[in-house]
Structures are given as structure tokens and as C-alpha cells.
Amino acid sequence: MKSAACLLLLLFALSLKAEEEQTRYVHFEGRTVDIYHQHIEFAHIINITRRFGVVSDRSGRFVMPVKHGDSLMITHVSHLVRFVMIDQEHLDATGPFEIIMLPKVFELREVVIRPLPRTRLEFRQEFVTIDLPPTP
Which residues is 47 bridged to in the sheet? Predict the structure, then answer.
């Protein structure tokens, strides 16, 4: 009887702790934008702390459960990776919190465009004698 009462008390304490853990999370509403405040659609927002992620919609908006101290990683194919640590400023935001992402710059090598040879034989000769750079 005594052990049953202790077990019941322990289960009650654990259920209170589990309920307290659930109430700490807040639905964080954010919006991914570029440096010109244009929305970035389909960005990946990953809560590294919880190992959970979402994708922003066509207007750059997303909602995910977070709590103070969580780390978010935001990625997009044409922008640099951004890391955000959730603090009280993020939790107190009244509307969607704007996360500004910097563009990723792609540098391309020079391309030389020449006119095609007039005949098939000239084309073949040009093709065979192309000077290609060594492959790495």
C-alpha cells in the first residue's frame, strides 16, 4: 500500500513535469526576406536544438514551435546560410519576425562564343582541334 502511494505520487510529479515542458514552447511566426525585404519562398528552417524543420510558404512565412535558447538554421539555394538563436525578442514579436538573408554570389568563368563553321566538315575539324583545359 505504501509503495503504491509512492508510485502514484511519482507518476503525478512526472506528469506535472511533462506538462510544464510542453507549455514552454511557443509558436514562433517568422518570415524569410532578402536585403530588399522581398520574400524568400521555400526556405528551409531547421530547429537544430529539437531536430525539427519546416519550409517557408510562397510568401516566405513559416510557423514552428520554439522555446527560449533554441537554435535555428535557415537555408536557401540562392542565399547564405543564416543561424538565429531564439531569445525573448523573438518570442515577444507581435507579427511575423523578419529574418533577413544575404544573397549567395555565384562567380562564373569567362565563356568565349564563336560563330559556327559553315560546313559539316569545317565543324568536325574545329571540334577535333578544340583546346580543352585539363580536368582536375
Answer: 52, 72
* C-alpha cell, 114: 564563336
48 contacts 71 by C-beta, under 8 angstroms: yes
* Measured torsion, CA atoms of residues 121, 127, 128, 129, in degrees rounded to the nearest 10: 110
What would the pLDDT profile of 63-91 be if each residue is shown by its tens digit? 999 999 999 999 999 999 999 999 988 88
Assigned CATH for 25-100: 2.60.40.1120
Convert the chain into a string of H (helix), E (strand) and C (coil). CHHHHHHHHHHHHHHHHHHHHHHCCEEEEEEEECCCCCECCCCEEEECCCCEEEECCCCCEEEEEECCCCEEEEEECCEEEEEEECCHHHHCCCCCEEEECCECCCCCCCCCCCCCCCCHHHHHHHHHCCCCCCCC
Residue 134's CB: how many other CB atoms inside 10 A? 4
Q: How many CB atoms lie within 10 A of CB 82?
A: 17
First-to-last CA distance in the chain?
77
